Structure formats: structure tokens, C-alpha cells
Amino acid sequence: MITVSGLDAGTYTLKVTTMPDSNHNPATQIVNITVNAVLTQLDANAVTTTYNINKNLVITLKDSKGNVLSGVSIVVNLNGAKTYTTDKNGQIKVSTKGLAPKVYTAKVTFNGNEKYVGLVKDIKVTVKKATPKLTAKKKTFKKSVKVKKYSITLKDNLGKAIKKAKVAIKIGKKTFNAKTNSKGKATFKIKKLTKKGKYNAKVTYNGNKYYNKVTKKVKINVK
Asked: pTM for the whole thing?
């Protein structure tokens, strides 16, 4: 039996010639040998994350025997195609940070090479809206103040200011609107609130394509 190893996938011609001796003449035989490329597999789990929070999509490339394949190029199309190279563990890590909230399909492609069969796999990536932090505190005003200024702050899930966001405060049947500045601060100019008493107010940010709606109840006192 003749063992041949280390050949890339393809068809080869093998020429075998016997060694002559005192009783035998040399004999030659030619045969074709086909070496098949090794099947591969891509291992990855679906990813669910929140806007602004990075959670890597981890993909591992292995051969059919479970051996990891390092130093191999893989193309991942997740809101745009990008080429990655597998590390010593046969892995690549794809960042999800910055993706707008929605459900994506990451198309992972290994094009194959002279030794391994290529394959394509789709992986689900879900990015959910973030919930911002709305800070609104109890406030006391003097009755004599005609325009009562009340401020709130709105920050994202990482503690950064959300600017140019429309917010509203409802006091009784009256609603006042404002917009946050570069520091996430919005100041309401409350007018015609002249009666002494304790008022229940509700501050609302309706959210957008990146952030969930948030509300907060506060007490407004007029003395």
C-alpha cells in the first residue's frame, strides 16, 4: 500500500514503477487520484443586544472533524461587507456597536480554498432600542413668579446627553414643551400656574428610532 499525504484538492496522476530484481523486470502503472476538499462548518449563535451596547457576534470556522481553521479569510455582511481573518482559535469577532435598532441578517461567507470547501451561513442579529434616563425632581415655586422655569435632563443608556430631543410636561390639563440642549437639559417655561397648591406633573419623552419612550411623575408645589 502506498500512502500519499499533504496534497491539495484536485486530480493527480500517479506513476508507480516497481524496482527490478533478478527474477522480475520493472513494471509501471499509471493511475489517477482525486483528492476532495475537506468539508467545513461555521459555528455561531444568534445575537440580541441593545443600541449603544457592543455585543460581539462570534463566529468559529472548523473542518468536518472539528479542527479549527486559523488564518483564514471570512466575509461578513452585517450592514455592509467586511473581511476578517480567523485567529488561533478559528474565530472572528464582529462588533454590533453603532447598529440602529432592528433585526439584521448577517451573511457569513467562507469562499473556500485549495484544501477546504466554502460555505455560507445566515445569522440573526437583533438590536433593541435603548431606554434613556429621564431625571426630573420635585420643585417648589413662589406664586408671585409669573414664568416658572422647570428643568429636566435626558441621557442615553451610557449616560451621555441626548440633545435636541423634544420633551413635554403635563400639569393638570396644561402641557408645556421644550427641547434638550447639548448637555441634555431642557427647561420648561410654565405660565399661568398661579394658584397655590400641590400639583401632579408628568414629564414625557416619546422616544425615536433609537430610544424607547420614558415618562416620570413629579410633584410641583406653588406657595
From this structure: 0.80
Print the domain residue range for 214.
133-222
Q: Helix count (H) and strand count (E) of the chain?
A: 0, 18
pLDDT digits (tens, 9 = 90+) for 79-124: 999 999 999 999 999 999 999 999 999 999 999 988 999 999 999 9
What CATH number should be reported for the domain holding residue 78?
A: 2.60.40.10
DSSP codes, 10-66? EEEEEEEEPPPBTTB---EEEEEEEEPPBPEEEE---EEEETT----EEEEEEETTS
DSSP annotation of 88: T
- Final residue of a structural domain among 128, 158, 193: 128
| C-alpha R_g of the chain | 34
